Recover the amino acids of this structure.
């Protein structure tokens, strides 16, 4: 029981840091997305551009501030693949929300954020930075 408690205690700061840094990253990415949708870019194109704009910023902020890792080319490659997975799932979900459920692309993307956060956490913690 003590071992489980110690694992949870050592894990919590990383989760809190991930959510804090992730909030900043999400605001940055959503702002780009919302501006592009506002100026009438297709929402999937806006999502793609916002994702591209956030990748470098997010790589350094997550790597250094959350996982305490400097990375390297292998980690950066895994980071890109992880973001591609998150983007693909986000794009599919956003398409369903906007085309099938007729939600606005703004609200649809807000709804996509929690699943994206969960998938990002799993990929970053257990694959990209698993040794960090």
């Amino acid at each position: 029981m003590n071992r489980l408690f110690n694992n949870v205690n050592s894990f919590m700061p990383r989760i809190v840091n991930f959510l804090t840094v992730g909030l900043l990253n999400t605001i940055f990415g959503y702002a780009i997305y919302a501006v592009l949708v506002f100026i009438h870019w297709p929402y999937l194109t806006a999502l793609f551009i916002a994702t591209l704009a956030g990748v470098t910023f997010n790589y350094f902020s997550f790597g250094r501030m959350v996982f305490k890792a400097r990375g390297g080319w292998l980690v950066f490659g895994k980071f890109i693949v992880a973001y591609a997975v998150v983007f693909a799932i986000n794009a599919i979900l956003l398409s369903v929300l906007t085309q099938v459920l007729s939600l606005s692309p703004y609200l649809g993307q807000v709804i996509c954020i929690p699943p994206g956060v969960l998938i990002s956490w799993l990929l970053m913690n257990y694959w990209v930075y698993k040794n960090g």
